[in-house]
Specification:
Elements (H helix, E strand, L loop, with lengths): L10 E4 L3 H15 L6 E8 L4 E8 L2 E7 L6 H15 L2
Parallel strand pairs: 1-2
Antiparallel strand pairs: 2-3, 3-4
Helix pairs in contact: 1-2
């Protein structure tokens, strides 16, 4: 489990690649901060083109997000995760 700014009790991030988890933990943590809900997030590489699957599970559902290698900029990941979780009501 990754501890993001003291929010370990709200966001649990794991994945097969420690490098990807480290790369995206802060961005995902920022996106989910302040929601007062517990989230389990899985970060895994998929395919041969460097794509990454971010699966977010909360008490109100589950949403998978696929990012191309060129979309892994932390600010972009934060924006996409935040907008998607809000839009889906997670």
């Amino acid at each position: 489990m990754a501890t993001i700014g003291g929010r370990a009790k709200w966001v649990e991030i794991s994945g097969e690649s420690p490098r990807l988890v480290d790369l995206l933990s802060d961005a995902i943590g920022q996106a989910l901060a302040g929601r007062s809900r517990f989230y389990v997030v899985s970060v895994d590489s998929i395919g041969r083109a460097g794509e990454v699957l971010v699966s977010i599970t909360g008490s109100r559902g589950h949403v998978p997000l696929r990012f191309a290698a060129s979309e892994l900029e932390p600010a972009n990941v934060t924006r996409v995760v935040e907008e998607t979780v809000s839009r889906c009501g997670l």
